Amino acid sequence: MKPVLQFALAMKDRLRSMFMLICRLFPAQNHKVVFSSFSGKSYSDSPKAISEALHQIRPDADIVWLFRDGASKANIIPDYVRTARNHSWHALREMSTARAWVDNMPMSDYTRKRNHQLYVQTWHGDRGFKKCLYDAPDHPKGVEMIEQWIADVMVTGSRHCEQMYKTAFGFQGEPLRVGSPRNDILIHPSAAKIIEVKRKLGIPQDVKLLLYAPTMRNAPRRKGEKQQIQPIDLLRTMDALGSRLSGEFYCLVRCHSTQLGLGGLPNDDRIIDASTYEDMADLLLISDVLITDYSSSAGDFVLTGRPLILFHNDKEQFEREERTFYFDISDTPFVSVRDQQTLEDHIAQLTPESAEKNDRDILDFYGAYETGEAAMRVAERIAQAMDERRK
User: Fold this and answer.
1) Measured by CB atoms within 10 angstroms of the end CB, which terminus of the chain is less buried, N or C?
2) Distance between CA 351 and CA 358 in Å, rounded?
3) Distance (Å, rounded) from C-alpha 123 to C-alpha 132?
């Protein structure tokens, strides 16, 4: 066995033992809830929405977030949030003594759960294209999704996600069919929130926004390089959108969180790199048009009723070298283009009415049932669990 693998296995055994020891030494704290998003990278996504809803209805809740670097989040998180460094002794103690956990990524397989603890799994791609976890052909043998045994609640916003939970996680429990908490702000958009996000990004309030957000590619990540954008001309695209939709367009670009950035971007003041912005949901909220390739953000953005376009010239290569899909995109209502001219031809015919209809068709394709109240419904489920343990 390779030394690196031996070390990793030894660390897992140690962490597993620490979990069990803490459970014996320290009692559970009924008012504590531990949150994590994207393995401690950010204060974002559905865990963030649930955390804030829980504080609203239960100010007495002790809310703990696990971060890779909590100090870097000091100006982002609310003052009622405590933090712990992910995978540390501190984090294990917080998790072991919590009443509930909320996460949008699979738990580490060294995790041990007490009786009566509540584990809420929200996932981060309710209506994704790409096969994941057990469904992925390259899923490592012997790596098990412990959610199939320890998850109590898996939050869903579509029939597609329900099926994915069964096959990708092996989850056979009852899903919580309330929608994706991160998407509540897309269903009930706040004008004040839009102003605030644009201000943070330094964007004039009166301009319209194109969001270009391609998904990850493995090669640049392995090489430690920036991911080059597809052969899309963002300047021409902004001009075409401005002409058709009557307004000046800026372009937000956002790389996948696993990438070092996007290379090949034009040097233009109207192009703003939002890759380090904390929460993707805010960017979807303020954007008037989304262009992506295979990002699950497409399945969220359609809730806005605004234009969505898939730009991918490498579909066959992507399936061969990167990830396979749950369905053939050509058999769906998605607008899919493979070159710049076809993109501009589509924009020339675009209307708000056609975009809204296309979005409804996509939601129907997935069997979506978003409520706009998902975060509050999940928070109420956690609060109910807290009260049950007090009896």
Assistant:
1) C
2) 11
3) 11
Q: Do residues 347 and 313 lie in contact, with contact meaning Cβ atoms separated by under 8 Å?
A: no
| Contact by Cβ (8 Å): 47, 124 | no
For residue 100, the one-letter residue type is A
CB count within 10 Å of CB 142 equals: 6
Residues 6+ apart with CB under 8 A from 64: 32, 33, 34, 35, 81, 82, 83, 84, 94, 98
Which DSSP letter does residue 168 get?
I
Nearest to 177 by CA among 193, 164, 161, 191: 161
Strand runs labelled E in 243-388: 249-253, 262-263, 271-273, 289-292, 308-311, 336-337
The identity of residue 143, as a single letter, is: V
- Cα distance between residue 93 and residue 76, in whole Å: 24
- Residue range 52-103, pLDDT digits in tens: 999 999 999 999 999 999 999 999 999 999 999 998 889 999 999 999 999 9
Question: What pLDDT score was predicted for residue 390?
Answer: 56
| Cβ 318 vs Cβ 294: under 8 Å | yes
75: tokens are: 């100006």
Span between the terminal Cα atoms of the chain, in Å: 50
Tokens of 49: 């929405």
Report CA torsion sign: 63, 66, 71, 72: negative
